[in-house]
Design goal:
Shape: globular
Radius of gyration: 19 Å
CATH architecture: 3-Layer(aba) Sandwich
Strand content: 15-25%
Largest sheet: 6 strands, mixed
CATH class: Alpha Beta
Order of helices and strands: EEEHEEEHHHHEHEHEEHH
Number of domains: 1
Structural class: alpha/beta
Distance between the termini: 39 Å
Number of helices: 9
Amino acid sequence: MGNNKEIVQVQNLYYRYDKENVLENINLSIAKGSFLAIVGPNGSGKSTLLKLMLGLLKPQKGTIRLFGQDIGKFKDQHKIGFVSQKANSFNTGFPATVFEVVGSGLTKKLGLFKFISKAENKKIMEAIRAVGMEDFANRNIGELSGGQQQRVFIARALVGEPELLILDEPTVGVDAENVSSFYEMLERLNKQDGITLLLVTHDIGTISDKVTDVACLNKNLHFHGSTEEFEKLKGNELSEIYGHDVQVLTHDHKHEGAHS
């Protein structure tokens, strides 16, 4: 089946808090090797959908399959890495180096106090290198900027060699000039390392040239398709999804003129 293998399949999914549906009839699949951005207004159910995919909440109606298995039976949690937006509200007084924080991502596989072998050492350094933080390996995590800390948390998620990396608003707390290099790093992980990425973001303009697919969520799934198809949506169609005026600004000069 090659690259078209769907590693996440969500079918007829409903979820409600109290009496209010947060998600209604969501059907969404994520193909291996893709880079999907989920966009939508605040309160549109994006975080709830991630929690359901991560098994933190149980579907009330509908099914989620991960790597072909029903989520209730899914045991290969190491195949999925997760970076929350909370990562950057990390306790900066915590006395751990970048190397130690990234190494703690192996505890799922190793158990907490196992001695780190040479091979694991190498893995930790590879993950740190993948996010461009090798010069900071021995630096205390509290001394780093928000954007650097966020890279470290991605390395921590990568060290377990996940096939799917889920990121919830990872650029919250990252200053504007570092956002584009941050997304370039994600694009590299996707294109060069073949990791499937799922990103919840508000920065749709900034990343439209990096992601392969876009899903627009506002309680229902209003759109799911390729980035090209998404860029053809008219402003009024997007405004209906968001419930207010939206402009898609792409920062990619290749596409200039496509949005006249």
